[in-house]
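User: Round two. Same drill as before: sequence, then structure, for each protein.

Assistant: Same drill it is. First protein:
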Amino acid sequence: MLVTPRHAPRAEGRRRRAAVRALHARIQRIRASIVETTDLDAEEATRAVVRVLARRILANHGDSASAVNIAPHGLESMVVTELEQLTEGWTWAREHDATADPDALTPELLGLVFEQLVNGLGMGAYYTPPDITAHLVATTVLTAWLDLLESDDVEWGVIARAPERFVRADARHGLDLELPAHVAKGVADATLRDDWNTIPPPAFALPGETWRETIERRSTARTAVETCARGEVRSVDALIANNLDVQAFAHAIVADASGDALARMDAALCALRVLDLTCGSGAFLVATFDALWRLARHVLACSDAHVDSIDQTAARLAIRAVHGVDIMGGAAEISSLRLRLALVGVAGPAVLDATPAEPDRIRTGNALVADFSWRDEFHEVFATFGGFHAIVGNPPFLEHPRAGAAYEPDAPRTRSCANLAAHATEVSIALLVPGGRLGLVLPVSTIATERFGPLQSLLAERLRHVCLASFDTIPSSLFVGVVQRVVLLMGATRAPCDTAPCIAWGTRYRKWRPEERDQLASTIAFQRTTFDGPLAGSIPKFGAAIERDIFAKLATNAPLRDLLVSAGPGQHCIFYKRRWSYFLLFLDFEPEMYDGDGLRRAPSELKTIHVDPAIDHRAVLAVLNSSLFYLHFSISADNRNVNRREIEGFPLAGLQPVHERALIALAQELMVATRLHSELRECTYRSIGTIRNQYFFQGRCKPIIDRIDAVLAEHYGLNAFELDHVQSFELRFRVSAS
């Protein structure tokens, strides 16, 4: 029987986040006061604040010498005193101190505050949540260490002997329980799934799941457990593609090793070199240090190393791997201070005496331009290894024209993408050794729009393996307070002689509610995807194997663009809104909108397409409102706006007369229901004042949409399971679960 323990208490994580928010808000007020009353700008004020707080925590950890050397230049003594008084009454503790007050202020908590201070300076950077940072570090940095080991030192058999150690607990939750009969009957018969959209008991489900999602997660987890048990996970790439616990595996093979193997593992740690080329305030660098410190400590403990202090020796090993660059001097300084705090936090202030210059592997400069000399700035890395073994980070998402002349990129392949995230990806690939690991947070548009086609071509050419996990912004966003759709890219560069096609894996465009946030990374489920999707510039975001089968059946049809014409007299018009939420809105009438004087006006976001007069436009109208089109859009688009590319590229041709007549009738019924389920809502905008908009409750029309999909299932030859998948796609978000 599989054991499915629940998580380490999540209340602790919520308490820590609340502490960060409270301290951050107080420090922000002080920083604003500094800017108003001194000659310091926001960045300079941030650096000054950070120096005071870093000095404070170092002194509290007994490192008075280092604290004295951190001078808060530019601040009046009164402001310094105010900042120091800010932390009066706090309990101070080192990291990983089991005896400490759970509400104590640690270097990590203060580091998170530093991160938010820097990311509020408008440089296109976003605060990366700790769980996402840790996930990318594990799948990039720890896997790079595994790559450096000799093949005989990686004991893959530990996975087969105990799969439940590596298939994550969240993914396995409830897997040992038998499904209730009223639910189980739908597994083999898609017509018996009436209860699948209800909420299961907590023993079966993770927060937020319906039975349908619980069953899907259980199926994925069972496949992973069985794959592991058969001994089929025998590569680092397979670890990532199955979303296994990389850290647990790394520690397991260390515990299983002995003698010379442990010495080689220690040597691999000594050799490993990691970079964040837009490091900001050092979140990824600190996470890298922490993961490597834990691993090095385990290696030293298992090898019975004769060292004065395992904690200090492990810290010195870990810190040597960490390198960073940032264009902002203040951010680079904060990164160095955070690493110093991390060192002190795990090994005490004495560790700084043995590694006084280690945190100075951080550089200030523009890593994306040719003027930055990598071989000079990091001579040891390139002279010894020829490049970095792993690169992690969250590069700025700024558009290139907004970035200014200082950002003219040294990225010829992606220059036309005109986005710093694309340029950073190209530069990163160039800095990696063959077989090096890449882990980046990127805008989802990089894998879903034609504009980023050059980047996608580069990835297909230079990577041998890539996993892409995509995340939506509704109803919740990965970046708190920021509407930014993202994809986590985890890849490995290919050897010069490797000409095999890149193996690509992806996820669905994932939506979630706040109560599901803590299990996002642990329940990532990859499906095989391709760089040659049906729409140019789009890597399909498949969430299940059945979606690939659906796409294959759709692909036998010609694109909808063949049925569209330019506007002209007598042409049949379909209106659509570019902005969308849980439904796409296509109409045969113009929605109502009135200005403050009650006069009718045209909605600004309304677009039109025109259907060939030889085709009844109502049949096309029905298709565009279908859940099948919504699924195709979610898998293929960047999900920001509805663009003509997605409409024109949808496969639709050769409707049988019986299907066309049915779709026409359903379109008429849908338009009547859409008008019926609408209301005028008053909104006030700064630019145009008060207006009244026609707001549509499209979820109430879902039964009609389901009938449209049933007709389309006959046209495309979808089976009962495929039709069920289409009709239920993202159902709990589109229509509330019962």
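Second protein:
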Amino acid sequence: MRHKTTFILLFIGLIAGSAAASDPIETLRRKLAVAAPNERPGCARDLAAALTAKGDDQKLKENFGAALSTYMEALAVLEKDNAGQPSPLLLNHTGLTLLVMGEYKEALDFLLRAAAAAERMGDREIGSASDYLIGYVHRDLANYDLALQYFRKAYETSVALGNQRRVIMALNEIGNVYYYRKQFAEALPYKEKSLQLARKYSNPELLANGLHDMGEFFQTQGQLVKALPLLQEALAIYRRAGLMRGTIITLTSIADCQRELGFFAAGLACLHEAWPLAEKAQQNRDLASILLLFSKIHEEMQDHRRSLEFQRRYHDLWARLFNEDKNKQIAEMQTRYEVEKKQRENELLKQEKQISVLALDKQRNQRNFLFYLALLVMLLAAVLYSRFRIKARAHRKLEAANSQIVAQQGKLEEAYKQMAELARHDQLTGLPNRRVAMEEIDREEKRFRRSQKSFVLVMTDIDGFKAVNDKVGHDAGDYVLQSVAALFSQSLRAQDTVYRWGGDEFLFLLPETTLAGAAVFMAAAKEKVRSNNFIFNGQRLQVAASMGASVYAGGLTIEACLHGADQEMYRSRKR
């Protein structure tokens, strides 16, 4: 649902064991370095087990980059010293870490290896855990049929093993897959059964997560009366258990529910409680959601000044998060590069070990030098050629990895540009959003101070929009907004701009224009809307526009000008 990683993070706690307080890894590394050849496999297995425990501890602390590096070192130790196949648990933990980091292809490879290894060893518990995570990967990749197949397999095995916790989680994820496929009727029984079992299972966090998930399920369906009690029950459990993150997210969901019901004061009270909790927990993404919801509620309360204030705080915080995400992705890419570099170094060490063995053979056979001279020359030549090829191949792989990092950085920069563009445009209509409007109005105000050329702000509201939403549906409302946006764009002069202000409101900026000129423009724009045929699924929709204009000519603030346009729009609607 909205916080889709809730159950996967809970799953980390389910399969990861607690790490030892002391760190014996360096001791085990030194022991392996001086071990006799016949002792090395056992020492390698001990070191791999200690590294696995350390990786588990790093993963529980959500230090996923470090955990991945530790797990990869454990795998390399086992491979280097021929200490046997990696355990299904180590493969599973590596795959889970990659999944949380968003590396789906690599995660799927390790999880499939874990499932196969668990099947060979008859370890149905790890096999079930791997099947659940494989389903999670396919769900995130929108391979819904495969996701259902693996979640059901995990559910059936967990039922047989009596693992009630995973039974609950698997049922919930089966419901989520149907939800993402928009098969809501099929999703509901699975989610209800999951919640019913969670009520009987003595884990407050699992129950609270299920209640919150079900509440959001009903909320997205517009069934707010069903959603609100579930969210409030989840909130009570999170509070009792001292689970701050769950408390923050649920308070935000309840506030959004209250907003949709029109209980603005109750919604604001929830947000005022969630705000300091999010700041204390340093949950900046949750704080961004809180600020955005503050803006929406104040906007719906017609308190545009406060709405704009929170909108600005939201965009400032989001810009900072955007930069943090960029740095985090670069750090993760560097971690992956270091892991791959370590794998290449281990491969070279393995080859050098083979060369060392050949050198010992040479010393043992020196007394037969003349007899074996020809054979030894050929063998050395073959070894040197093999080593040359190995180093050349490693060099090519290193260059390819460097090229891939450069290419990925280019893709990241392009993605950041696209995200920045999306942050400035309304995704539904494609029009510039309120943030862009305020920037361009500020520029127009500065130009007025220099040239004394007035400009006009025209606030526009779509009449009949709520009726369309209520009677025909939100898809019809989206169609109306897109169609009206296109008509308004066609009405503009070269220097004019139209913005999506919020909800069903649009704002026009008309530079170098008087109120008389604005009146002509508004008449033409309203006529264009009035005369347009709005047909959705064969049904004609009744749509019109109310407009109000306010001229900025000095001695006036932008907020006052916007307020004047807003008041004129309401007077226009009453006329």
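The first strand starts at residue 455 and ends at 463.

User: Perfect.
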